[in-house]
Design a protein that fits this description.
1% of the residues lie in helices and 37% in strands. With 355 residues, it is mostly beta strands. The strands form four sheets. Strands 5, 6, 7, 10, 15, 16, 17 and 20 form an eight-stranded antiparallel beta sheet that branches. Strands 8, 9, 11, 12, 13, 14, 18 and 19 form an eight-stranded antiparallel beta sheet that branches. It has a six-stranded antiparallel beta sheet with strand order 1-2-26-25-21-22, with no helix packed on it.
Length: 355
């Protein structure tokens, strides 16, 4: 599935070219691409596109906030535009239990009803000056998919609320996890997609019990006007979308719009267990860089083929050039993997293949 989505939806053009060696150590660049630096884990490199095409990025490079959850529960100020500390939820701690591949720690949150976000009932970020959001997070659900006594788990794994919070009559959207209550939903407009029993929903658990580490991505764009039905509320696990990219959303019921984003809240059915978080990346732009094993940008909703994606950390961004620090994430080696850049309109540009 390639091309652009009608009515201003999620653009998905992919532009891999022929692969040509040279320009940087450790990578074979696609046609029209070049760069400098050593293309290996933890290195800052610069990528150049002849004639441009990367577009612009809010803030010029760095994401709003980057949380490795390795040595601290606070954001890494070297790679974040917003650097203020957050109040940590009392149920959250830095843990060495079951970290992801190549990690030593993660943020562990003990399951309970109420706010489950690593932060104490505070949004990860407020985006009152923009209508766009991108969140990447690695997560592991180490719990059953209900509380064992008939209570359906309703864990809202990501939430977009007005600044006033979840208030009757104001628009709020979320993605819920739980075998009997899994859906993407906007409450005031009753726009929803049920995910109960789908293979995508089942990715989070192993036969109803502890699941694997997943790389999760969430894209949001406010609809342009009440009733326009052109909003975006897209969710991916290991590069697989929960539903077709062409699915557009009715996200507004009035003048109030979503302006804050949170991670988990368990409304009911909390089982015994915990959730682990790692590598939380939050931004007001869809422009991003990641490493993956996919040679063509995946837009399928089939879980038969999955692609771990490792988000990288841009520090400057222009139409012709990106400077970014590479992260191998959960990959044991970068050899044979691909480097991708996506524009703010979600156009995928393959940079090249690691050698």
């Amino acid at each position: 599935m390639r091309g652009f989505i009608a009515r201003g939806g999620l653009g998905l053009a992919s532009t891999p070219g022929g692969t040509t060696p040279g320009g940087g150590s450790g990578i074979n660049f696609d046609a029209g691409l070049s760069g400098s630096g050593t293309f290996s884990d933890g290195q800052s490199v610069t990528i150049t596109k002849s004639g441009g095409g990367f577009g612009t990025k809010s803030g010029g490079g760095k994401p709003k906030r980057w949380y490795p959850f390795e040595s601290s529960l606070q954001c890494d100020t070297n790679f974040s535009r917003d650097t203020g500390n957050m109040t940590i939820n009392a149920r959250c701690s830095l843990s060495t239990t079951s970290p992801p591949v190549n990690g030593t720690h993660s943020a562990k949150v003990t399951m309970s009803e109420g706010n489950m976000c690593p932060f104490d009932d505070s949004p990860i970020w407020t985006f009152e000056s923009t209508n766009k959001l991108y969140v990447y997070v690695e997560r592991k659900h180490d719990h059953n998919d209900d509380n064992g006594s008939g209570g359906a788990l309703n864990d809202k794994t990501i939430r977009v609320w007005p600044l006033a919070g979840s208030v009757a009559g104001l628009p709020d959207g979320y993605l819920s996890i739980g075998d009997n209550l899994a859906l993407a939903f906007f409450e005031q407009t009753s726009d929803e997609v049920f995910l109960n029993g789908t293979s995508w929903q089942a990715m989070a658990f192993n036969s109803g019990g502890p699941g694997p580490w997943l790389t999760c991505e969430h894209l949001f764009r406010e609809e342009s006007a009440v009733g326009a039905n052109d909003g975006v509320w897209t969710h991916l696990r290991n590069g697989v979308s929960a539903y077709t990219y062409s699915r557009l959303w009715d996200t507004r019921s009035g003048s109030t719009t979503q302006q804050s984003v949170y991670l988990d809240e368990v409304s009911n059915g909390a089982p015994t267990g915990q959730i682990y978080f790692h590598s939380l990346y939050v931004d007001d732009s869809w422009a991003r860089v990641f490493i993956s094993s996919e040679s063509s940008y995946n837009t399928s909703t089939s879980t038969a083929t999955q692609f771990i994606r490792s988000i990288c950390l841009p520090t400057s961004w222009s139409n012709t050039s990106i400077t970014v620090t590479l992260r191998k994430g959960q990959f044991t080696s970068l050899t044979g993997k691909y480097l991708w850049a996506l524009t703010d309109s979600n156009t995928a540009i393959r940079i090249g293949q690691f050698t």
